[in-house]
Amino acid sequence: MEQKAPLTLYLAAPRGFCAGVDRAVKIVEMALQKWGAPVYVRHEIVHNKFVVEGLRDKGAVFVEELDECPDDRPVIFSAHGVPKSVPAEARRREMIFVDATCPLVSKVHVEAERHHAAGLQMVMIGHAGHPEVLGTMGQLPEGEVLLVETVEDVTGIAPRDPARLAFITQTTLSVDDTAAIVAALQARFPAIVGPAKEDICYATTNRQAAVKAIAGRIDALLVIGAPNSSNSRRLVEVGRAAGCDYSQLVMRADQIDWRAMQGIRSVGVTAGASAPEVLVNEVIDAFRARYDVTVELVETARENVEFKVPRVLREPG
């Protein structure tokens, strides 16, 4: 029998599900238990095909817009948040709806409203078209939120009054890239007001820090996550920036490019905040089938955050 080559897998921790994703998935499962199938979900509850398919099998129906939902079935809003117009329309139609927006995203919404009430125009650092960005910008009237994606974008915005500005950020951005954009904003608009505490969520920050901790000792990094998952794609970028040139996003073990793995001795494995641990185990098993694997856990933080599900799901009836 051919002897397997030795390989060390450095398993980043924290990785995978965050409290907001955990809560959102639980909300769909509890809604199905309470009201039976079908339960409608506006947009993918979280950006992970495996999770979405699992919920679809249980009776969740995923749609992009509210007008695709019937009046008489419950609808859930995804963890990314929705513009204010969406719950307003659901109320008008007298629908049962449950908001699964991550509480850390809701915190940014509240922050934007507070600044708007104080007469400040908002600058949002985020990715155009991402559901979280659409949801956050949709909290305020048209034109009240200016979007910047890069340092270069900062020079192109034309605020109403440069002395009356505040900034907020998408919660799943690269910590380092965002710091550079914030610095550019502060250089151009010295009076700009920032959040009391960083908008980038603890889970995004922790997962990026864990990747940085392993990047220097690995030949390759695999990030388990979906192509439309912002926080997963940022982990790939963080891996490359921290010195691991071969950093790749894979949805599942069957996407691993084994030819690219030839001759390597060490691989880092992490997972985006919407990827379940079962997919991490699947990747580890795929390596064990081909190599003599040693798994080393590299833990840079411990997470014990938990968010309650909405009261409507905890009440009987």
Automatic annotation (TrEMBL):
Instruction: Identify the keywords attached in UniProt to this record, alphabetized.
Output: 4Fe-4S, Iron, Iron-sulfur, Isoprene biosynthesis, Metal-binding, Oxidoreductase
Q: Where does isopentenyl diphosphate bind?
A: 47, 80, 130, 229-231, 274
**What is a single molecular function from GO for this protein?**
metal ion binding
Pathway it works in:
Isoprenoid biosynthesis; isopentenyl diphosphate biosynthesis via DXP pathway; isopentenyl diphosphate from 1-deoxy-D-xylulose 5-phosphate: step 6/6; Isoprenoid biosynthesis; dimethylallyl diphosphate biosynthesis; dimethylallyl diphosphate from (2E)-4-hydroxy-3-methylbutenyl diphosphate: step 1/1
Q: Which reaction does it catalyse?
A: dimethylallyl diphosphate + 2 oxidized [2Fe-2S]-[ferredoxin] + H2O = (2E)-4-hydroxy-3-methylbut-2-enyl diphosphate + 2 reduced [2Fe-2S]-[ferredoxin] + 2 H(+); isopentenyl diphosphate + 2 oxidized [2Fe-2S]-[ferredoxin] + H2O = (2E)-4-hydroxy-3-methylbut-2-enyl diphosphate + 2 reduced [2Fe-2S]-[ferredoxin] + 2 H(+)
Listed binding positions for dimethylallyl diphosphate are 47, 80, 130, 229-231, 274
Q: Do you know which Gene3D superfamilies this protein is assigned to?
A: 3.40.50.11270, 4-hydroxy-3-methylbut-2-enyl diphosphate reductase, catalytic domain
Q: Where is the active site?
A: 132
Q: What is its EC number?
A: 1.17.7.4
Instruction: Quote the record's cofactor note.
Output: Binds 1 [4Fe-4S] cluster per subunit.
For the keyword Cytoplasm, the answer is no
Signal sequence bounds: none
User: CDD domains this protein is in?
Assistant: lytB_ispH (cd13944)
Cofactor(s) listed in the protein's UniProt record: [4Fe-4S] cluster
Q: Which residues bind [4Fe-4S] cluster?
A: 18, 102, 201
Q: Name one GO biological process term.
A: isopentenyl diphosphate biosynthetic process, methylerythritol 4-phosphate pathway
Which residues participate in (2E)-4-hydroxy-3-methylbut-2-enyl diphosphate binding? 47, 80, 130, 171, 229-231, 274
Q: What class of enzyme is it?
A: oxidoreductase
Entry function: Catalyzes the conversion of 1-hydroxy-2-methyl-2-(E)-butenyl 4-diphosphate (HMBPP) into a mixture of isopentenyl diphosphate (IPP) and dimethylallyl diphosphate (DMAPP). Acts in the terminal step of the DOXP/MEP pathway for isoprenoid precursor biosynthesis.
Q: Which family does it belong to?
A: Belongs to the IspH family.
**Identification of the protein by name:** 4-hydroxy-3-methylbut-2-enyl diphosphate reductase
Which species expresses this protein natively?
Answer: Paracoccus limosus
